[in-house]
Design a protein that fits this description.
Layout: E1 2-11, H1 15-23, H2 25-29, E2 37-42, E3 51-58, E4 61-73, E5 77-82, E6 87-95, E7 99-109, H3 119-124, H4 128-144, E8 161-169, H5 173-180, H6 183-186, E9 192-197, E10 206-213, E11 216-228, E12 232-237, E13 242-250, E14 253-262, H7 267-299
Length: 302
């Protein structure tokens, strides 16, 4: 699937001036709203092969992508490919009165599930506001020497970041459910549980969960919002993620599945959440293996 964004504007400058401006990637990279840095600039004589590293920060985490000019047609078109992210095409059309129509297209191939995409890629998924702001700033920089859109907007992020995995356990469904309904089991030993308050019906059970990411202590409140004995339960975290723990008969035992879904509020949170998911994948697999071993020991399957 290709996600394409197209924006255009009319600039009061000759096409040669606009082309020269865009021939240096520093100019349009820093034209994006917000603060960014451009390093490793390498301008080639015929334009093709020109490259630069574009850097910015999302929630304090530095993000980097390198762009390289793959096609350059003087005074007509520049095609720039990101190392991670979109292909950006600048198309120029001369107008009467020494003006130029500039069209900017950002095209991104989206193939992998979002949970498999590293934070770098999320940073590179430019929003419509990003492209619109960059086009407006290119126009204003050429006409006035100043940005007209200096600050980045808080772009909303509507896609869901998902992690899920499962394991088959040689134990009865009811035995596995009785074990994993305890948050100290399904969240694993790296998460400290406190203030656990259970309800007879399961729904409304609450607790505090504390853990560390990159050495940073985090804490949130969980509440069981759905609870069906011997089947599944859903736990909603105040910080955002929704967890679903499910058991079902399978392969002569029980299939235990755990899934988490997070909808970040913006691109910065998306980058951080995706990074956390990627970093913790191995630990989550070990966590499932630990639950399997514990359940099978309890039932004497091992």
């Amino acid at each position: 699937m290709t996600r394409t964004i197209l924006r255009s504007t009319v600039i009061k400058a000759p096409v040669e001036t606009v082309f020269t401006f865009l021939s240096d990637p520093t100019n349009w990279m820093t034209a994006f709203p917000g603060d960014s840095d451009v390093t490793n600039l390498d301008i080639r004589p015929d334009g093709v092969g020109t490259s630069a590293r574009w850097s910015a920060k999302a929630w304090g985490i530095p993000m980097h992508v390198t762009h390289e000019y793959r096609e350059v047609m003087p005074n007509k078109r520049i095609v720039s490919k990101a190392s991670v992210g979109p292909v950006i095409t600048f198309s120029l059309e001369p107008l009467n009165g020494s003006g130029t129509e500039l069209a900017v297209e950002s095209a991104l191939e989206i193939d992998a599930p979002l949970v498999r995409v590293p934070a770098q890629a999320l940073f590179a998924r430019l929003t419509e506001d990003d492209i619109q702001g960059m086009v407006a700033n290119v126009k204003s920089l050429l006409e006035t020497g100043k940005k007209t859109v200096p600050h980045a907007s808080e772009a909303k992020f509507s896609q869901t970041l998902t992690w899920s995995d499962s394991v088959t356990i040689a134990a009865a469904v009811e035995d596995v459910f009785e074990l994993v309904k305890d948050p100290r089991v399904w969240l694993g030993p790296d998460v400290q549980i406190s203030d656990l308050v259970t309800t007879p019906e399961g729904v409304g059970t609450t607790f505090q969960a504390s853990w560390k990411v990159l050495g940073i202590p985090l804490k949130t409140t969980h509440e069981y919002t759905e609870y069906v004995p011997k089947s599944h339960f859903t736990s909603k975290a105040a910080l955002g993620p929704v967890f679903r723990v499910e058991v079902a008969p399978g392969d002569g035992g029980t299939r235990l599945s755990i899934r988490s879904d997070t909808v970040p509020r913006n691109m910065a949170e998306a980058a951080v959440d995706a990074l956390i998911i990627k970093m913790s994948e191995r630990g989550q697999a070990q966590q499932l293996a630990g639950i399997k071993a514990k359940a099978e020991r309890r039932t004497g399957a091992l």
